[in-house]
Amino acid sequence: MTRKQKRLGLIGLAGLVLGSAVGLVLYGLSSSVTYFQSPSDIVEQQLEVGQRIRLGGLVEDGTLDKSQGSVILFRVTDQAEAIPVSYKGILPDLFREGQGIIAEGHLNERGVFIADTVLAKHDESYMPKEVYESLKEDGHWMEKEQAASAERSSKVN
Amino acid sequence: MIIELGHYALILALVVAAVQSVFPVWGAVKSDHRLMGMAPGLAVIMFLLTCVAFAALTWAYLNSDFSLVNTYQNSHSNKPLVYKISGVWGNHEGSILLWVLILVLFGALVAVFSRNIPQRLRAATLGAQGWVSFAFLLFVIVVSNPFTRISPAPLQGLGLNPMLQDIGLAIHPPILYIGYVGFSIVFAFAAAALILGKLDAAWARWVRPWILVSWIFLTLGISMGSYWAYYELGWGGWWFWDPVENASFMPWLTGTALLHSAIVMERRDALKVWTVFLALLTFSLSLLGTFLVRSGVLTSVHAFAVDPARGLFILAILLIFVGGSLTLFAWRAPLLRQGGLFAPISREGSLVLNNLFLTTACAAVFVGTLYPLVLDALTGDKISVGAPFFNLTFGPIMVPVLVLMPFGQLLAWKRGDAWGVAQRLTSAFVVAMLATVGLIWFMGVSTTSIMTALGFGLAFWAIFGSLWEIIERSQLFKIGFGRSMARIKGFTPTVWSTVLGHAGLGITVLGIVTTMAFESERVEVMRPGETLEQNGYIVTYEKSWTQNGPNYQEMVSQYTLRKGGNVVGIMEPSKRAYNASGMPMSETSIATVGFSQVYFATGDSDENGGIVTRIYFKPLITLIWIGTVIMSLGGCIALFDRRLRVGAPVSARKRKGVAGGVATATPAE
Predict the structure, then answer these.
(1) Contacts for B536-542 with beta carbons within 8 Å, 24 or more apart?
(2) Which of B29, B118, B237, B610 sits at a 20 to 30 Å CA gap from B458?
(3) What does pTM read for this prediction?
């Protein structure tokens, strides 16, 4: 083979590998990413049962129910709408009412969000970025109470 | 006073970095020996000054000097000593200072240990290292200064985040940073080669030890970080495909590619331009990682909290270095002489394939990591790209790497015989298949899916295919055992490093496949005396009590773990409340049984004395980390390759001078 043929072969092979990778990536992005949604989004969009999403918002005060043993029930709210959530497992250490959290999972037929992961960052004054922004957008951000704590969170590493 | 001294030393280091950025490079271009001669001294001085600054900050932590904003926010006087020391880098300012310390350490190491490389290359390299040092010293001083005072000084600090009060913090960041930042010197070597327009096989030989050192530490750092997150976060996960993890994984992928392409360049004088490009790319990805972690543009389970000014500053550094190095590359690379020729089926050919797949895999990780950012900026849609995406894209790209790895190892340089190699590997293939069948039988035939079986086969093929080189070279089973042993003793370090590196990867893959396919978890409310049974283990909840730690109170729950009638572990997971911050924190408890682990975490207790207990069963999970340690060991052995210590050609006149004991100022080139 001449140098030119070898180079063409190499370029062809690289193109093939990269092409397949691009295909995989595009397929992956269309099929296996999860969208972040607030309770209002879910109510507005009539989310399909079983579709995987990340639900973000505040844990509504007075809704945390741990009486069912290892299954924990609570509601996630963005101050406009609230979605009931069921989670089997151990909650993060800093999970408590009034705290911003992200739950990953899907809705069942009865409109209950079945979470398989619950994230509350390991920092007492932390608010997940998506939750903060979506609350702020909707104008439900409790400026006075939480601005101070957001300020603190940028300092306490 | 000590604090001011540290602060002052840091500013002096910045000035030294500015001098080092300009004069040695100018000297290298103009062949001015006096200017070039400045470089090593400057690099060492800069390192010493940064040491003073770092020592001053450490002093503030040890003495609980809360007149610094940094110590006030992150320390507490009754914290155990080890966390006072590791607390220095348990926060943004301190950890970036550690970053800089390691950066200038690498400059000093090159100044001290690379005496045998040509003076021009050394001066230009240290100059380029000076640019990086300057940028980051400026960053430390301007937007993340750890020496900022607070007045009046508080009497007590706020305490270190309990998550970080762990031995993992003492070890993981320094090791990871050595890997991450070590690639800066490789970057500097590449920039220097481009500036001087001279790139040959010897360059690869001089750079390879630095690539190896960085790669070894990056491998260990990632692996250790994974284990730390595994036992500390309490979710039983060992890899989350989290942006911060990907940030360190991307340079690892291109760094691994670089490690291989540098071998081709050193042996065959080929792939030169590509190798330089990879060197620039790897450090650019390190910088990108630093940006992602520090700027807070991505939500992560591991990141520090953030400040927009810092993000912008690092973004500026990132753009200048990536843009600058790519421009330099586009301008100078065409001037470099093309390298040697080789047939597609050859050792070189297989290493090209390795590079192709590794960089493609890196690109897939890159897209998955940055896509949410781009989409958010363009459409405002917030998405998360998680494990399903990466398993779908990264997994298939790595399959050919594992399949072809044993072939590459046995192919000859220049022109290989693929069919011959395949015949030689038949026995390895048979052994791998037997091992696969054995493991499937052990794990249970009915529970093993086809994909899992393929995964086992791939892992065992990588392990035995890599080890086959030993058997073949020693002609074990063909000549007598004693003679084979004699041959094994005569192996060069290269043979061992390749075998261990590749077999280690196979072992890691075996651990990953087994854990993913067979892990199971139980969440139950348990009352004292209750037992549960799973996977052949019997767990009994015994009792719980409260006790005081040095700076926390904890509730410990005790479980007995039995297997086959024998007690294999008394497990004591706990929930802590830290005195300084009042923050709660769960501590897990892990039993290692053979290569498998059983992982305990506790949740809340209910009114009836029951406690929520979460138990994960993780078969063969330790292989994941054992494999990475074996890989790193392979890297360490490669450092003993004698060829890496061959110096630059020295003129006869100089050699005579040295032999006669007369100091001589003749430059090496």
Answers:
(1) B536/B563, B536/B564, B537/B561, B537/B562, B537/B563, B537/B568, B537/B598, B537/B617, B538/B562, B538/B563, B539/B613, B539/B615, B541/B611, B541/B613
(2) B237
(3) 0.90
